[in-house]
Amino acid sequence: MEEIFADDATLRKRMVDVLKKHMMVDDEVDAEVRRRIKNLEEGTATWEVEYQKALDQIKKNRRLDEK
After folding, report:
1. What does the radius of gyration of the chain's CA atoms come to, in whole angstroms?
2. Which residues contact 58 (CB under 8 A, 6 or more apart)?
3. Is the dihedral of CA 54, 67, 62, 60 positive or negative?
4. What is the dihedral of CA 43, 47, 53, 59, to 10 degrees?
């Protein structure tokens, strides 16, 4: 891995697009999870468990859980 040296303004400018892209993916995944468990009441223990299960499955299907 190489280190990148640049002034802060340059680094921020390059990072903005990458961060926006990842945040959009997170929002899309969250929306899909919520659609899958829309029949459950948010805030309940069941909702929390099913949300995590659905989130894990979607991330696995989209290969987002790979490091």
Report:
1. 17
2. 29, 32, 33, 36, 64
3. negative
4. -50
Residues 27-51: tens digit of each pLDDT: 999 999 999 999 999 999 999 999 9
Q: Which of 1-10, 14-23, 42-51 has the lowest mean pLDDT?
A: 1-10
Return the structure tokens found at 29.
């995944």
Using a 10 angstrom Cβ sphere, with 0-12 exposed, 13-18 middle and 19 or more buried, the burial of residue 1 is exposed
Q: Which pTM was predicted?
A: 0.70
Which residue pairs from 48-56 have beta carbons closer than 8 angstroms and sit at least 24 positions apart in sequence? Answer: 55/29, 55/30
29 and 59 Cβ atoms separated by less than 8 Å: yes
Q: Is 37 helix (H, G, I), strand (E, B) or coil?
A: coil
pLDDT, mean of residues 13-34: 92
